[in-house]
Amino acid sequence: MADRLAGIRHLLPRWSAKLGTGLVLVGVIALFGLIAPLFAADPRDSGNKSLLPPSGSHLLGTTKLGYDVFAQLATGTRGSLYVGLVGGLSAMLLAIVFGILAGYFGGWLDEILMLFTNIMLVIPGLPLVMVIAAYVQNVDGLGDFARSSTMVALILGVTGWAGSAIVLRAQARSLRTREYVAAARVAGEKGLRIIFVEILPNLVPLIAAQLIWGVMSAVLGEAGLSYLGLGPTNSITLGTMLNDAQTGQAVGSQAWWWFVPPGAVIALLGTGLALINFAIDEIVNPKLRLAPQAARRQRRATKAGRGVAGGGAFA
């Protein structure tokens, strides 16, 4: 039991100021997106006066069509979080399939999977997403699903996995040469079982980092698509709020309460996810984990009047 707890503790990021700040930011935004819509007014209610500034009756004012901005922000935050999770999970699953299978099995499978991965890497991301989104939205038979949040999230996931697959492939190639993997092969274990039992558990921090990166990319990607008019039409997200503010000339009307809140939530959510990712990187990269300790030793040595050699040893 003690060994198992020690192994789990080794996979967790060390507590730091950036990890705490990131968790607080993401936690507060997630709670707001989950709880606030339950108490907010109807985000589609246009019975209010247009472009009202923030007040007691409308905490963040109203839009040009009379929608309550606070209600739309609460619903839009939930919608953007949904797009981020679905898009991030889709990208992570594709990265695991293409990256780990290619890295472990090698040979012709590696060449085929990496050929497709490299093609996805060299194609510019935003134009590809725009073309796919515009095409899917005009496909017959999909109906409302073509312009839904789920479809937008899947498009972002399908187009955003290649970079993570390259990283996972490199780590899988390194792990397949380890002694415990070789012992499992000698014992007659099948390849897929070795991947799930021996390789994937050791890639948990890296997969978590790629997942967080995928969620952040999906949220920002949806905001960009919606701002260009290619986002979901049957749901509210932070991106659709920005698109409505742009088309409604919120800047020209000096209705700052219309576009500043969704932009601020996107910025804070991206900052929080990035800070958490930096903390996870310290597990993946030993140099980042050991750098603060070396810096502290150097500061203590400087205060004590001693020098520190290049390798971290005291002179």
CATH superfamily: MetI-like
Low-confidence stretches: 1-6
- Principal-axis shape: globular
* Element-level helix/strand string: HHHHHHHHHHHHH
Question: In angstroms, what is the radius of gyration?
Answer: 24 Å
Domains counted in the coordinates: how many? 1
Using the coordinates above, name the CATH class: Mainly Alpha
Mean of all residue-level pLDDT scores: 83
| CATH-assigned fold name | MetI-like fold
Tally of extended strands?
0
Q: Quickly give the CATH architecture.
A: Orthogonal Bundle
Beta-strand percent range: under 5%
Instruction: Give the % helix.
Output: 55-70%
List keywords for this structure.
globular, single chain, MetI-like fold, 315 residues, mainly alpha, 0% strand
Concise structural overview:
The chain has helices spanning 2-11, 17-39, 69-105, 107-122, 125-136, 149-158, 162-175, 179-186, 191-199, 204-227, 238-247, 256-284, 286-303. It is mainly alpha-helical. Helix 3 runs parallel beside helix 12, helix 6 crosses helix 10 (204-227) and helix 8 packs antiparallel against helix 9 (191-199).
Task: Annotate the secondary structure layout.
Elements: H1 2-11, H2 17-39, H3 69-105, H4 107-122, H5 125-136, H6 149-158, H7 162-175, H8 179-186, H9 191-199, H10 204-227, H11 238-247, H12 256-284, H13 286-303
